[in-house]
Structures are given as C-alpha cells and as structure tokens.
Amino acid sequence: MSFDDLSAELELRKQQSLYRSRRTLQTAQQPIVQVEGREFLAFCSNDYLGLANHPEVIRSFQQAANKYGVGGGASHLVNGHSQAHHELEEALAEFTGRPKALLFSTGYMANIGAVNALLDKRDAIFQDRLNHASLLDAGLLSGARFQRYLHNDADSLDKKLAKTDARRHLVVTDGVFSMDGDVADLPALSSVCKKHQAWLMVDDAHGFGCLGQQGGGCAEYFAMPNDDLQVLVGTLGKGFGTAGAFVAGSDALIDTLVQHARTYIYTTSMPPAVAAATLTSLRLLKEETWRRDKLTQLIKQFRQGCSELGLTLIDSPTPIQPIMIGESSKAMQISKILEDDGIYISAIRPPTVPQGGARLRVTLSAAHTEEQVNRLLHALEKVS
Ligand SMILES: *Cc1c(COP(=O)(O)O)cnc(C)c1O
C-alpha cells in the first residue's frame, strides 16, 4: 500500500498556506531566542511571566532531581505519587481556595480526564464555539450530547440549556480564550448555569498568573464564589513556566476523578522534579506582583502602538494580543517579513481559528522590555 494519497493531501495543504512545520529552538524560553542558528526577538511564547527559565525554578528542579531522580516511575495510584506531587496539590488547592486539587501530566489530559469522568451518553455538554481543541475532543469522546454556543454569549447558552432533558449538564469554557485573548464572561455564564442547574467548568490555562491581584486567574479577576465554578482547570506549562496541569474543586469532584479519570489512572505521574519546580514558580507567581504590573504596562504600550498603526486587535486585557489578518497566505507572508526583520511571531491559521480568521498571535511576557515592544511596533509599521 502506498502513501501517495497522503502526499497529495500534504501538497494541497502547502498550496493553501495551511502546512504546519516546526522550528528548532536552541535556547531557553526568553525574549531573545536562537532558532536554527539565527537570533530572534520572540513574541509567541506562553511563558507570560518569564518563569520558565527563572534561576530559582531551575534550582528547585535540580535539587528535586537529586532527591527523586528523573522519572515518575509509575502512575499516581501505583507508586508514582511522590511527596513533591502531594505538596504541590495541597499548595494549588490553597491557591485556588478549593478543598482539593489533582495533578495531571498535561492540560490536554486534564480536560479529557475530567469531562469523561463526569459525563456519558446520558448527559449533555455545552461548549463555547472557540474553546480549546482539548475541550472539544473531551466532549466528543464522552459521548454526551454535544452543543456549541456562540462565543462568550450567555443568551445563546441559555437557549440551548432550556431545551435539554439530559441527566447532567456541563458547561465548559476557556477562561481566557487561547487564540483571542478575551476573557470568558463568568458571572453571566454562571448565572445561566444556576438557572438550569448545570455545572460550570473553566479551563483557565492562560489566566493563571496573568489575571487577578494574586495571579489567581479569571476566578479571582471576577471574584467568583467557589461554589459557582465547580470544575476549575489550570495548566502549568504557560504562566507557571513548567509543565503539567491540575483540576481543582470539591472533595467529591476530585475523588471522582481519582476513581474514573482514565488520563489520570493509566499514565505515569509527571516527573517529581517538575512538581517541585512548580511549587517554586507558584510562590514567585503569587509574590512577585511586579510581573503582572509589567505585563499591564507592556499590553497598554502595544495596544496603543497598534491603534496608531491602524492594526486590528481583539478587545483583550491579557498578554494574548492577536493581530487579525484574515487570509492564511497573507498571515504567512507577514510572518515571513517580520522574520527577515529578526522578529518571531507565529501565524495562526484554520482549523486552529475559524476560516478567514488567520492572525499573528502576539504574546507578551513580563520578561520583555519596553524597548523590545517598541522594536516590534517599528517592524509592524513596515508591514501595515
Ligand atoms: C494549552 C492549552 C491546553 C493544553 O495544555 P497542555 O498542558 O499544553 O497540554 C488546554 N487548554 C487550553 C485553553 C490551552 O490553551
């Protein structure tokens, strides 16, 4: 059997400017990176607080590696649940103000595991149409009746919830939308959930560390009562600068996940040193409020500059600041010109975003300087 039809499909993808390829990074996550031998000023990392390469985080990782070795060794329920994992779970529960938190190896797995431990074909799931792929996949895999409501539109959700007679209803949303940077309207969504007795699950992968006085994400940003947001997911590979994810919630929720979440039960625990490093990054994330202040300043500077250049942005208060382009080919072309100028920003194209919604997904970090943002604006002036 030949692979000719695969090759034809790949060729078509290239012609449509939808072909994806990787770049090899030769440095740590930081504003100035070396990529395949060339230096770039990067605006595409999710290391929003500049913690991925922080000396204290690295030191905790090294010390824990000396103590625990490298591999997790087994799943949490066999003998892979180390003291380091346990301490991090307790710290995350305290940080989010919930009785319990449970670690997963990735955010993708946390979402698949949580949704599938809670729902089956007797149930119904309601998702924002711009939710992250891992949430959509989680819903599809569960076999629950699947509905998508209009982006961040509580009325659209209300209408859909009114028409269901399923056993359980789970409403799922990104906290900060990963490709748009806007924040889910949690108070409105929560009030609709209460009206229809639905659970609310929020995946705040991009909110933790960035939103809220203490970096507590969109829950803190809106001062949401804990009981109004029943399933809270955070990932550790973005603002926290490490790797992995967690689900926080009630004792009954977390116990159910331990019993039934297959992506928790049938996988090796994350390396204990990652958990130890995350414990340190959690402390820095909470204490070093200057990182959020710095982000706020850079976001303001960037948005003001773009507005002067007539560029189209999304109404986003977060470090995710996409410049809307439209056509995939044009987004690729601009990204290439910026690259020739030494600036690295990735073009995001369908199906990651809707048709005609190609964009340059600019992300800012507390590690960037004002001068670096000026350099970006200067480069954008040439292509706008
Ligand atoms: C990145 C992301 C994930 C996946 O998290 P990983 O830990 O990288 O697997 C899940 N949800 C959202 C909203 C994300 O942006």
Automatic annotation (TrEMBL):
Role summary: Catalyzes the decarboxylative condensation of pimeloyl-[acyl-carrier protein] and L-alanine to produce 8-amino-7-oxononanoate (AON), [acyl-carrier protein], and carbon dioxide.
Keywords (A to Z) from UniProt: Acyltransferase, Biotin biosynthesis, Pyridoxal phosphate, Transferase
Pathway annotation: Cofactor biosynthesis; biotin biosynthesis
Coiled coil stretches, renumbered: none
Entry cofactors: pyridoxal 5'-phosphate
InterPro entries hit by this protein: Aminotrans_II_pyridoxalP_BS, Aminotransferase_I/II_large, AON_synthase_class-II, AONS_Archaea/Proteobacteria, AONS_Proteobacteria, PyrdxlP-dep_Trfase, PyrdxlP-dep_Trfase_major, PyrdxlP-dep_Trfase_small
EC number: 2.3.1.47
Record NCBIfam families: bioF
Domain (Aminotransferase class I/classII large) ranges: 40-380
Binding sites annotated in the UniProt record for substrate: 20, 132, 352
A GO molecular function held by the record: 8-amino-7-oxononanoate synthase activity
Sequence positions that bind pyridoxal 5'-phosphate: 107-108, 178, 206, 235
Subunit structure: Homodimer.
Protein name: 8-amino-7-oxononanoate synthase
Top class in the EC scheme: transferase
Gene: bioF
Family affiliation: Belongs to the class-II pyridoxal-phosphate-dependent aminotransferase family. BioF subfamily.
A Pfam family it matches: Aminotran_1_2
Known catalytic reactions: 6-carboxyhexanoyl-[ACP] + L-alanine + H(+) = (8S)-8-amino-7-oxononanoate + holo-[ACP] + CO2
